[in-house]
Amino acid sequence: MRYLASTSRKLTLMRGILFTVTYYLLSVIYVLASLPFLVLPGRGPVSIIIRSYTRAMNLNLRFIGGISKEVRGRENLPDGAFVVAAKHQSWGDGYMIYPEIKNLAFVTGDHLEKFPLVGGILRKLGAIVIDTCGGGDRKAESLREGMETARKEGRRVLIYPEGHLAPVDYHFRYKPGVWHMAEAMGVPVVPVATNIGLFWKQQETRKTPGRAIIAFLEPIPPGLPKDEFMARLTDAVESRTATLVAEARGAQPFRATLIPDPVNGSQSRPTSDDPAAFSKA
After folding, report:
1. Which of 4, 7, 40, 64 lies most in the core, judged by the most C-beta atoms within 10 Å?
2. Which of 108-112, 129-133, 227-231 bottoms out in mean pLDDT, i.e. has the lowest?
């Protein structure tokens, strides 16, 4: 038994390493494929390439990482523009969501622009890039500018309201920027729950085979008071996420634990067996 357990751990580690190598190879290939189209008007060709890239990454997850994908609740996606407010457990959840929604923009920090050539691709895709170095006023201004462009173009916008990668069984405080965005655009918000963190934890190399689920939930209409909206969003995402996690574990669901935001951008790694260190949500 000890030998089998050791062999299983080695295979899991090898699977993760092979996935990571393929991940970076695919990223380089698709970035290079996008370059000739950055100087052309319109975002059509680059959007097609990046959508193909996310689909390729889903195949990488399936056949190398051993993580299959199931999508639930597509009927909850409205016509026209809307905001997608997603649970953020893993680098992989964005790759799972992106190919499912047409005309999707996303909110990201300007740290991604440090990577060679990525900034040009983000601008071509119409991503809402937040100025994280310019202070609160500049952050708000860059968000307003991005929202106005998205509203005019009737786009859908993906945002992670927690602002950080959350470990399974925990969550961060949901930030009200998603409410300001939905109100400014006058569009509904589609909450998204997932259990991918069970199989691809945050930024870890190791991949655990299994079935990752993303669930698009019933849209929240615009016009609600901020506190009511935030409570409704948090409850919807966290309740369904707990159910999906419990389904994969074959156990009863329980409420995630609220933890403080990590300091200075560090990754939060609380121990799942010590929730008493934090306050309950």
Report:
1. 64
2. 129-133
